[in-house]
Amino acid sequence: MEETLIEEGESNREGGEVSPALIAVHPLEKSLAVSIGSELRVFDLIEDCSISLVDDSGGPLHSDSIRAICFGANGKLFASAGDDKLVKVWTTNPWRCISTVIAEKRVSAVAISHDGLFVSFADKFGVVWVTGTDGDHEAKEKASPLFGHYCSIITSLEFSPDGRFIVSADRDFKIRVTVFPKNPFSGAHEIQSFCLGHTEFVSCLSFVCTQEHPQGFLLSGSGDSTVRLWDVRSGSLLDTCEVGSEAGLSECDGKEENVCPAITDICTSADGSIVAVGIQSLHGVVLLSCDLSARTLSVIKVMHLDPSIPSS
């Protein structure tokens, strides 16, 4: 979530408004988690009913806007975090909160390692922290600094599909690929690569992988209205899709510059062939084709939703 939304959230609290809704789908499509403001709700997609959440962590409940939610790779764990400086880790069968970490600053991003042993989160000052999900109760309530982005707000965190890297994006246009160490509580000191090329803040990250490419490739969205495909091992830019212009949303502001609507979210299909892209100013989504063999992205369709149907 980009800094503008964080700043809006700060002023919105004074006006009684809440942050934008966040949605996360269970990897096996068993459940759907939705956060609106400080409220977290979960729906059972198989039984078609809401799920009651139980908090066994002994920590406080969310009291301010939730800014980040995510499922673990196998769907057994879920994490929520936000402006109240809380990072809450949940099991999903049954749904209950097993630990609550109190961060030093407001939290802007969260991710769960692929083995489910660690939860990483980023605060507003650009520091990435790590906490464990296994061990005694006291250990699960503490976090250790992993690395930092030097006071640049981190907008997104993702673990690579093979678990080797943790990828972080920030407001200063850069994407950092860090080797995730065997003992993360001692810090992550090895940088694998930087993915550089965006000309505005990086708003979202997502990995896409197939059976032929299990290591995965990285997708990034930005305030420059593009979605880009990367090889994180080398930091190489493989392809750029000008989503804003393809959707007809880039406009001239009268100063010979294009006004680019920001990419707000990226979601990939299970087989990695389709990428759904959310973009500001579009009441709908843009569908991209992702060909990992050819290392290319291309627009398939711009899907417009009926504006008379509420979306939030």
UniProtKB/TrEMBL annotation:
Main subcellular location of this protein, as a coarse class: nucleus
Repeat positions for WD: 62-100, 195-240
Pathways involved: tRNA modification; N(7)-methylguanine-tRNA biosynthesis
Subcellular localization: Nucleus
A Gene Ontology BP annotation from the UniProt entry: tRNA (guanine-N7)-methylation
The keyword Ribosomal protein is assigned to this record: no
Keyword annotations of the record: Nucleus, Repeat, tRNA processing, WD repeat
A GO CC term assigned to this protein in UniProt: tRNA methyltransferase complex
Function according to Swiss-Prot or TrEMBL: Required for the formation of N(7)-methylguanine at position 46 (m7G46) in tRNA. In the complex, it is required to stabilize and induce conformational changes of the catalytic subunit.
PANTHER family, A to Z: TRNA (GUANINE-N(7)-)-METHYLTRANSFERASE NON-CATALYTIC SUBUNIT WDR4, WD40 REPEAT PROTEIN 4
Family membership noted in the UniProt record: Belongs to the WD repeat TRM82 family.
Subunit structure: Forms a heterodimer with the catalytic subunit.
Protein name, per record: tRNA (guanine-N(7)-)-methyltransferase non-catalytic subunit
Taxonomic source organism: Aquilegia coerulea (Rocky mountain columbine)
